[in-house]
Fold these 4 entries.
Entry 1:
Amino acid sequence: MPLIGLHVSISGGFLKAVERGETHGCEAIQIFTKNQLQWKAPAISPSQGITFLKALRESGIRRVVAHASYLINLAGEEPLRGKSMEALIDEIERCDHLGIEDLVLHPGAHLGQGLEKGLLNLIEGLRVVLEKTENARVRILLETMAGQGTVLGARVDLFREVLQGLDWNGRMGLCLDTCHLFAAGYELREKGSYEHLVKNLEKNFGLDRIGCWHLNDSKAEKGSHRDRHQHLGEGELGLRFFSILLSDSRWDDVPLILETPKCGMGDCGNMALLRKLRGH
Ligand SMILES: [Zn+2]
Ligand SMILES: [Zn+2]
């Protein structure tokens, strides 16, 4: 069975995030370990980590995934790239203190210097970060992107180049966002095309590397390269696809995290839909 859940806010502290997850019956949650729009944050104390882990153990939440700051761009040029490497190292240490094993990262944008250069920067940046945090268990999950502007990662093939460039380091994996994949041009609405994608992932990465899915319907059309999350079943993707995904035993124990809008049917409605589609 996949582990279903939500991205929850840490406003009021890490324990509040656990509470929010519990309220919605989450089996997995995703959090930012700091304000995602700021570079700096107060360090996490060992006691904060211990209390968080204790609260988790007493909850029904089985997995926690962290999402790195939106400011980080390893594909960019200096000084942004250096600053991003430092920030990513800090994010990994924060996850380590909280006992979080998976950290979702946007691959970044080349900002006009060209895809090749951006890709090289990204690989090199990740290599340095992995080396400097070699004692941490935290795995970096590169997220598939809609491909707006100069953003990297609209094609899954690019991640193959990144992982190849990092000698298939075991601390690297992928996070698949359903809205982003669809907006990037992947057809998911037919069982055959979904199967084709999963086979591609299995052959090129191995399914163990898929550490997380983001479940979002898409307001924008297929191939639009626009990143517009929508409630499940209220977008262009539709419920059929999500039903196929939820009943696929290849995602047993993998966190499937909602990042749908808070308005309208909101978290309660989307979680209820997921349970219904999964059968319980
Ligand atoms: Zn993301
Ligand atoms: Zn998105």
Note: The chain is about 40% helix and 15% strand.
Entry 2:
Amino acid sequence: MANEQDIRERVSRDYTLAVTSESGCCCGSSKVAQKGVVSRLAGYGAEELAALPAEAVVNSFGCGNPLAFSEVRAGQVVLDLGSGAGIDVLLAGKKVGSQGRAIGIDMTEAMLAKARENIAASGLANVEVRRGTIEHLPVENSSVDWVISNCVINLSPEKPRVFAEIARVLKPGGRMLVSDIVAEDLPEWMRNHPRLYSSCVAGAINEQEYLAGLRAAGLIDAEVRDRLVYDATQLTAFITSELQDAVSCGDSGALPELGREQMEPLVGKIYSALIAARKPSFKS
Ligand SMILES: C[S@@+](CC[C@H](N)C(=O)[O-])C[C@H]1O[C@@H](n2cnc3c(N)ncnc32)[C@H](O)[C@@H]1O
């Protein structure tokens, strides 16, 4: 079993490839031709996408649109964990307006560089990205109104630390709303497949573990608000393309037989969930 730092380095390498070349084996898409499809499937409106720099949209690797379901208001501070090329942190910047702030955190230099280009292209002066890990956020205690995240926490090898960091940086009464892949009863070969980690499958935990982790960190009102369940065709396309890339990358051995028959039992077991929680207003 690789240690936490090795896992983060591998994930970061894969996302560097994803944003700088035509390959890379990542969440929601592994081929440039599929980029953009991911964001549409994730539930963004055509109008909100058209108002963003195109490079933020084609380089999105999310599995939902957490901000769309939030009640973020003008003047608030929003923190986006694993902000990637910036799609959600830019949308947050628009929502909070010039009196508010949107801050993205990412550990991958190439993603940060792309996000900075996109922030400059958007002209938004209230948006910034910082280099750091979501397990050790470079953010002050009790300083943000909202934590959002899109398909990132599943990639952390230290999820309890991430949940504790969310609780630390939220203001009392502040809220978390994240879209993430959750998974149950994954076959052992999927759990252990190195390429399926970066693609947001192998590291995913189930809903109960997620909610229990948030509660253990001191957050309240933890709940699953919505589920985006992939059908067998979507799952097959997604997982097969990841594994084919892995084989062409030469690092993952033989490609298992994967057709509808193998995928059908996984429908409803690997899906995107919209998860909410809140920091208590006062210490009891
Ligand atoms: C699946 S992509 C999602 C990017 C973005 N949220 C979006 O919707 O397009 C995952 C992003 O999280 C970053 N990431 C993964 N694990 C991380 C960690 N432990 N700390 C900081 N960033 C991380 C990756 O570098 C990558 O940019």
Note: The chain has twelve helices and seven strands.
Entry 3:
Amino acid sequence: MRSPTELAQVFRDKQLKLKPQRQLLFSRLHQNKSHPTAESLYEIASKQMPGISLRTIYQTLGELAEMGELQLVDVGIGATRFDPNTGDHHHFVCESCRAMHDVDILTSPKMSLRRGGGFAVNEVGVVFCGRCNRCNHKQQVRSPESQAKDKASN
Ligand SMILES: [Zn+2]
Ligand SMILES: [Zn+2]
């Protein structure tokens, strides 16, 4: 995704209205690595600009996606995520807290279909599902062993 200043210029050139709400979203999305959903952006934006509508958020996200500034990531866990990193990369999703991280994979990413069946592949994206460090740690802390100890001490 281009910088908020560059995007403001693009919107002006396209004669799209450059409302302050849009500029706020540009700055919230620029170099944002959290892969936010429309709702989470709405929450963040509302704090800074009370009264901003969810409709404006969806509209701006749609425009940015159409312009190729955002990548939509839909992995079947929770809502669609918006990623300003439009380059080829892969994701890890935590099934517990739904955090999404960019990941590098060790093997060659140049996978191909064993039975191509004439499909024309435009891009390859791998999604790893599991538990993030934070959630993994939380679970270890609350292991059955420590729970048994808790009961014993009560
Ligand atoms: Zn997690
Ligand atoms: Zn990403």
Note: The domain at 1-70 is CATH 1.10.10.10 (Arc Repressor Mutant, subunit A).
Entry 4:
Amino acid sequence: MRKFGNKIIVKLLGAVAISFLVSLGMMILIILFNVYLQKMNYLTELSIRSSYFMILLQYSAVILTFIAVFFIMARKKILYLKLITESVHDIANGRLGLTIRIESRDELTQLAQNINDMSKELEKKFEHERQLERSKSELISNVSHDLRTPLTSIIGYLDLLKKGQYDSKAQFQEYLETIDSKSQRLKYLIDELFEYTHLSSPNVKLTCKEADLSGLLEQIIGEYIPIFEKEQLSVQKSITEDNVPVLMDIEKMVRVYDNLFMNAIKYSMKPSELFISLEIIGDKAILRVSNKVENFEVNNINKLFERFFRGDQARTGQQGSGLGLAISKRIVELHNGKIHAEYREGWMSFIVEHPIDYGLWD
Ligand SMILES: Nc1ncnc2c1ncn2[C@@H]1O[C@H](COP(=O)(O)OP(=O)(O)OP(=O)(O)O)[C@@H](O)[C@H]1O
Ligand SMILES: [Mg+2]
């Protein structure tokens, strides 16, 4: 019943009925007035022309009453329709996200609601496109800057060799080695960049397999221990659980662990300790890698996961690309996991949450 009452046709019919009743009332008044005039013998004195004119006047008054009452009653709807038309015009002219106020529950309001939804959706899409465009151009400018540096020195050293501007065979060899190491760096940057853009594409596919996370980590850490020791990092490992079933693209996740351990080697204070632990909390397996750092200064620690972000000390070292953690984040998220960093009293920790799949080994 309520729904029926909200239909615009019902409202219009109601307005017609009320207008009709009011004009009927008006007609009755006019008839009564005519009867009164007749009683007073006033009408007989009028010429035929004048009486036709009076009838015309009275009919017009009735019709005008009908129109006026109908207009007053439908005015709100007409104004609302005008508002909708103007808003659609504004949206079409670029005011995306504009919304029309919602008044009642009839079809016009439904139309306004649909237009509002469309406008918000368009705004969201447009903003997303703009964001993509911005990050693409940012990526291009960062990449060109990072690729240009090694390429410039390769060109410079090759030029020296071409012009024979070296004093000895040893210097010749030294230049060649610089060219070699700069070319390796260029290749590394290009490979990382390729990996990042590949992982960022929306249709990237993982090749997931069942795996035991604790066994996998034990194995990787075992391989790293000689390197940690050589770098004066003494490892404190705590992997308590034996079988931790996870579904993962092992090759990709190993990249994440490699980057975490390599970062610990590159950016840790030496000599010092390195803590690695795997803990089970609920249905999550939590890997924590903590190392000691000196003068760590980043206002927002999440910045570390932005691509091309490199700390001051890392930038002077020229070893990495600043893409490692951005790639890791993407890989972990593709596995429905999470990665974040924490800094507390000189200790930097990277925490990776993996969803455990207990159903795997039932
Ligand atoms: N364990 C850590 N301790 C202290 N700082 C770190 C650590 N891991 C990363 N960082 C900081 O975060 C920055 C980003 O790390 P990320 O792994 O993304 O890049 P990278 O190591 O510089 O280069 P890439 O991994 O591509 O070779 C580093 O440059 C460093 O400043
Ligand atoms: Mg790294």
Note: The longest helix spans residues 107-162.
